[in-house]
Amino acid sequence: MRTIIYLTVFSICGLATLNLATCASADSTNRSNQTAHTSPSVAPAAASETAPEATVQPAGANKMETRLAAADNEFGFDLFSQIQAKDKDKNIFFSPLSVAFALAMTYNGAAGETQQAMARALKLERMSLAEINRASAALTNTLVSSDPKVEMVIANSLWARQGVQFKPDFLARNREFFGAEITSLNFGNPQAKNTINNWVSKKTKGKIPVIIDQIDAQKVLFLINAIYFKGQWQKRFDKTLTSNEPFHLLSGAQKQVSMMSQSGNYRYFRGDKFQAVSLPYGNGGTSLYLFLPDQDSSLKNLLNGLNHQTWEQWMGRFRDTPGDVKIPRFKLDYEINLNETLKALGMEVAFAAGKADFSGMRAQRDLFISEVKHKAIVELNEEGTTAAAATSVGIGLTSAPSEQQRFTFVADRPFLMAIRNQQTGAILFIGAVVDPK
């Protein structure tokens, strides 16, 4: 009789402004060189403990990282569509990049049908494993160093049950290309979960103190990705202009929110039944994109046309335009188990005991994914923000207004938001705000 043992993937991400950390290490604005700790129960990944290669951009990385960012974005829109269908009346905020990174580490141990299913779901079919790993390292390096005025940290870790052997090359790849800290723990010790939670808490500056509630006897490996973003507006909102104004909820009711205001020149475009504006952080390497349905339309209509292809078309339609912007100040958190969502995207076999093939992690085919959990926090205020958004309304977009035509953008009803890296096009966070709090 074969014993089936579980592996668990955690994705802890989000955005933060000012002193709020959401999903990752805030040790520095650059990715830190992380030391992997290995004990005899985890087969050593490599003899050398040198800095991860991810800090050095490989030749041809620009093209590779752009391909990977596009794949991650496409996966992110599929993920967003599934999540929104499930939580359509709730605030949604998550990092498709964090989920993709966590699953990419897992993908390094997949084989056979499981690997093929994951490649299809993650949109990685046209990239080899070597290309995915090199591109992940290059993309990480670009994201954490693209703007000295924006703090972006990406942290990864693997936590293995003491006594369970994993293949050295699996551990080595995750250490080298994802900078993963690798630690062997006695999962039978009640303090084991505290050790992992303390790592998460440290990386999120205490904002996410607990990610693991318990470790059952069949859990053998936790793969964790954490992303932290902290950015100040290129043009800060004047706090004296913030005032209480009504926000129209999906139910038709109204609530009072703190509405921030400013005027100036922005990247803007008018779509079919919606308008969109981009607010840059720091030196402009990363921006918040806001998409607002017209009053005679709805968030549902806006989301119906949202996909990767439409998004890319929209990105080419923004033009410098003078206007007035009002957006609510808010803070929210979001937590979701992604098991059913990922199964719906074609990854069923990876969750199936006795069918999943993670023989790239260990010779025995006794592993399967038991849980993929994602947690994120976001705060948006006068000095900075973190947000998530996605927007599309299918076809029939009108042309962008001329620079002389002034616009008014008042986010007093449910809207979409996304944080995007301009150099790679990677969507760091995406979400829908229906009830700002």
Describe the 3D structure:
The protein is of the alpha+beta class. 25% of the residues lie in helices and 30% in strands. The protein has 2 domains: 5-231 and 332-379, 2-Layer Sandwich (Antithrombin, Chain I, domain 2); 239-328 and 383-433, Roll (Alpha-1-antitrypsin, domain 1), CATH 2.30.39.10. The chain has helices at 61-86, 96-107, 112-122, 129-145, 168-178, 192-203, 299-303, 308-315, 339-347; strands at 5-13, 92-94, 150-161, 181-185, 219-231, 243-248, 254-271, 274-281, 286-293, 319-328, 330-337, 367-380, 407-410, 415-421, 427-433. The longest helix has 26 residues, at 61-86. The radius of gyration is 22 Å and the shape is globular. Mean pLDDT is 82; it is low at 1-5, 14-61 and 385-403.
